[in-house]
């Protein structure tokens, strides 16, 4: 379906790979559903919602998801609209999953920021925006729930500009709000879209034309005329370049629930959002239009089917064409790997991908060969950067209820760590494994999964450590000296890299000052 579409544009130029960032409850799920409907990826509204309620067999593997009603897994949905192939990467909704979300955002080229019109910028939106800003990801803003009582549009634009330091360019303007919300006015095209009228936008003579005024109750018409005049004078027009550089956001007002403004939004995304961008690797930058296939793994999802220990590695194709059955080189190990059954994901099902292009995300089934951050190429020895690991903020020792199963636990922890559920630290003094997480919920996820998938009941014990840092040095001798002097505070991470653990930020600082040739880092690039 995807390969067969007739078009002039190159397959890469047609791709738009994006995520939706928002605070819980702003309307991400509802908007996702409406976007997929436009793309014909699902037939009935409500299917994404059904997934949220955790009734589908696919998500049953994790009781915790059902209990808490949150989305723990990151997935990808592909759909076509207006000659474009959209890859929507779903980011986990809960704030505890910032690492996973962060990694997902390394794989997108643009993002839709959904804001609740009554609430404005909320904590999580802001945090996710900051992650996008690190890579200058262009942001399209959707102000949602205009059908409810909402804040003044100027106020909302002002808040975006001030709190995010991001210029705004409203594309349309709400006609009325809350109960009197009747539609939107396109500021550049002078067209009107009516709520509940599924038709093309109608051209009008201007915002004060009778056709527009009649949409509002008489007592609101003067205020509207004044407001729209001000909007046209005071607001910046949309410009492509500052948008693509991440400095300016086009703003669409609408209501996902009423499926209003969503078409304008997706049209905007199709027209303005960038095609797949080049990606930095250690030795050079790889451009999306290069002919040879490269890609990196940003997410591993294991045990989607608990009966088979299958793992899906989600890989973003960065350049070239991936074809089913091709041989790729896993650069970390130098070994070849046959991509015999790469998969595309749609709203509910998966399908074998015969070919995928830069910007696409494919699922690669494997039995533990692939890890987060891995680079696959057609032979070139390059490693993509920028899928980082953050120093965990919580450290716990894992206590096994049945000591006979220590070996099995070690294997299970290794797998969970490879999948990115937790980070695993093996103390050099031989004491029990320590797991580290950024958010506490991940500890519950680990416990639940060890029980459900491996039959291993565990408990957690506090450790005396609260903080850890990866340590490196230009002098191997200094590093080895530091390690042997502090052996009881050193652990190896999953890749065998040394980690220094401290009891408090204060004691960490103390040790840092006494070891000037050692670098203490709270971020590690996966390699
Ligand atoms: P998420 O947590 O961001 O995925 O938010 P949901 O899409 O689940 O929406 C949260 C709630 O807001 C649900 O009850 C939706 O029905 C409701 N909602 C979403 N969009 C709109 C909208 O445009 N108008 C109104 N009135 N409610 C909405």
UniProtKB/TrEMBL annotation:
Pfam families: EF-G_D2 (PF22042), GTP_EFTU (PF00009), RF3_C (PF16658). The gene is prfC. Keywords: Cytoplasm, GTP-binding, Nucleotide-binding, Protein biosynthesis. The lineage of its organism: Bacteria, Pseudomonadati, Pseudomonadota, Alphaproteobacteria, Hyphomicrobiales. This is Peptide chain release factor 3. The keyword Cytoplasm applies. Increases the formation of ribosomal termination complexes and stimulates activities of RF-1 and RF-2. It binds guanine nucleotides and has strong preference for UGA stop codons. It may interact directly with the ribosome. The stimulation of RF-1 and RF-2 is significantly reduced by GTP and GDP, but not by GMP. GO terms for molecular function: GTP binding; GTPase activity; guanosine tetraphosphate binding; translation release factor activity, codon nonspecific; translation release factor activity, codon specific. It is found in: Cytoplasm. One of its GO terms (cellular component) is cytosol. InterPro entries: EF-G-like_DII, EFG_III/V, G_TR_CS, P-loop_NTPase, PrfC, RF3_C, RF3_dom_3_sf, RF3_GTP-bd. GO terms for biological process: regulation of translational termination. It comes from Alsobacter soli. Belongs to the TRAFAC class translation factor GTPase superfamily. Classic translation factor GTPase family. PrfC subfamily.
